[in-house]
Structures are given as structure tokens and as C-alpha cells.
Amino acid sequence: MTPKRKRTANNTPYPLSAARALALDAQGLATPPDGAVGPDSIYNTIERIGWLQIDTLQMVRRSQYLTLWSRLGKYDPEHLDGLLSGDAESGQGRRLFEYWRHAACMIPLDDYRYSLPTQRAYREGRTGWYRGWIDEPGNRDLVQVVLEHIRDHGASRSSDFERDGVKRGSWWDWKPAKRALEALYNQGDVMVASRVNFQRVYDLKERVLPEWVSRDEPTEEDATRWSLEKSIRRLGICDPRGVADYVKIKRTRAKPVIDEMIADGTIELVPVQQSSDATGSLAVHREDIVKLDAAADGALEPSHVTFLNPFDNLFWARDRDEQFWGFNQILEAYKREPDRIWGYYSLPILFRDRLVGRFDPKLERQTGVLRVKKLHLEPGVKPEDDMVASIAGSMRDFLAFHDASDLVIEHSNPSDFGTKLLAAM
Hints:
The protein is of the alpha+beta class and 425 residues long. It has 18 helices and 15 strands.
């Protein structure tokens, strides 16, 4: 039973600071890392945030590695790779798999069975680009040819088909073969066994999926509810509509399930003072009410200082960056350079419970220089000494994580922030 809250009786709103604290705590971003980091702590962090988004951009380390660094500090990225591949070097068996959640993600194998309804929907042509593509002439045969190639030749990359030049009639080439691999992956016939230079290596499901993993398929309804309940726990607190964003379920599809969870008490709506003259109702899982009370009483005060990547889980609930932090998180990599304000791959700076600035880094791997092309503090934030010292400590760890030995700041706003940061390094 959820304990009664003192704010329930008189409908006193929770302060916005309590909402921020709960959100950060749910994401493992409230307190600094403590102790050595190995495969277990990496896995536990992924379990805590639910799933880990994978992305190709690499001005610095890719997003999946940065999301973990933000919570754990410096660690060995090969441990993460080993949790996916099951390599002996990781000291552990395979514990993660790749599939779709918020986007392409690494997911604990304990959750594998909840991907089965999505795989079935792909097989039955009820979702995605697969619906039209599979019915085009020759494509069903192509999928079978690619599957048999993997069965006979072992784990394969898309580039293996291009290089081998295997053909099935006149229509075989690399692009359709890659599509066939993606179709087989989406419908669950093949899985990502590992990655080589970031390229997926596919193998048959029966050769990748450990025996201990449950294959019991839930209904689509049960899988949707499970995904949404897991999402609200990982978000901590958010607008009820934003729960769906964490797992990328359409809000219209999620709404009746969210309403059901509110009706049965799984999710509670609590008043939060979002500004001096506005109070709104936010969603909290009933198991997290105690933590929200603790945050309101000052017993949960975020103290972590770190940098976040544009794909960090903290930003997955749409508009929560503005609502909670007054911060517009935006990825400008796909804008024309003259249209960029913050930079190509800008990283937000988390200082305790505030997002105080951002910087646009580029790692020069040959020279070991981390070049910050733009460094900004948010409007109204001043480069106080204690904040600069804390950010400098995080920057030293960031450099070490990238095997970088030097920091260059090309532009700083305000200018004394960059000067102070370099002096504190």
C-alpha cells in the first residue's frame, strides 16, 4: 500500500525542485559514481534506465558509451561490447540484445520476450516499411536466400554480401540484401551477435539467444502496458502524455492504457508547482511517491555534475527539458552550419539539479586533443568558482575516457567561463 502523503490532505503542490530530483534519481543522475566500474555495474545501469540508445554520430564516443559515462564516469567500453556479444574478455556471458525500444537500443535479455509481439507484427506485415517491400517481386525469395546464407556460412555483416558477390537471379545487389537483413532482424529470425567497427554482425536467433532467456510471448496489450509501466519508473515523473515517448509508442495508442493505470492506482497524478503562477498534474508511479516526498523534504538532493549526450534517456519525454529545466535540448547536426546556434553535437552540462550550459566537442583522435568549438552557459547562469571547479573535474574525467590529453576551447560565452575552466583544469 502506498503511504499517505502529507500533501494529499491539503492538496499542497510539490515544488518543481522535487520533480527534478526524482527525474534525475530515476535516471541514475542524482549522485556521483562510487567505486570501480565493471560489467555488472554497466548492466545494472542499463537496467536502471531501461534501454540504451545506439547512434552512429561520433564527434566524441558514440551515444551508447556516453550515456553510461554520464552515470558511471570512466569505464572500459569493451565491457559494454562484451555484454552484447558474450565475449570471454568481458568475464560474463551475453546479457544484452539489440532491438527497437525508444530507437535502436541495447536491452537486457531479461526483457527479450516483450519484443516478441513487435517481431510478430513485422512477420505479419502489420508495421514498418516491411509491409510494402516484402510484397515486391523477388523480395520474399531474397529474404530466404539471405537467411540460408547466414545458416550455411555463419555470422555475417551486410558488407559480406557485397564482397562475396552472391547472387539470386539478376536482382541481387548489396542494397536489397541489406534490406533483407533488416527484415530478418525486425521479425526476429536473426539477431545482432556483435558489432565490428560499429557494423552489425548478424547470426541466427538460435545461435545468439541464450537458452535461459524466456520465449513466452505476451499479448500486445500486456507488452504495451509492461513497456509503459517500465517507462514511468525510468522517467520518475513527467506529463502523463510523455510516458509513451520513452518507449516510442504513439501517444494516442498509449492514452487508454495510461488512463487505465491511473484508474487502478498504478500511476498517480500529483500537483507540481511548475512556475510561480502555474500548477500542473504530473504522473508518478505509486512506488515512487515515497521518493517524491523525500525530494520535497530535501532528503533527495542531486549532487552529480556531468555532461549528457543529445540522445540521453533524460530527454526522451517530449518537452520535459523545457518544463523542468527551462532548457531547450536540440541536436543541430542535421542543420546547415550557418543555422546552428549551439554546435553540431552539443552536450548539455548537468550541475546538480540544473542544466547550466552546453558545449560542442570534437575529438581529434590522432593528436589526443579535445576541441571545444563552442562553450555556452545558459542565460542568467554565472561562472561561479565552485561550479567551474566541479565542471573541470568532470571535464578531466571526460578527457580520460577519450584518451585525450589536451583541451582547446575556441569560443566561450561568456568568455570568462572558458578562461576559468581552462585555469581549473
